[in-house]
Write a structure and sequence with these properties.
With 44 residues, this protein is mainly alpha-helical. The chain has helices at 17-22, 37-43. The chain is flat, with a radius of gyration of 14 Å.
Length: 44
Amino acid sequence: MEKIKLPKPRLKGALSLEETIQKRRSIRSYSSKELKIEEISQLC
């Protein structure tokens, strides 16, 4: 399997960790829209 080099994730965001946890929610809907490589990088 070919490896894909991902860009480095952004480590600074608009919200603090505490705000992010407080506003956290689960969404169970899915989209057929493809993820951008930058979005995938944020997950790794």
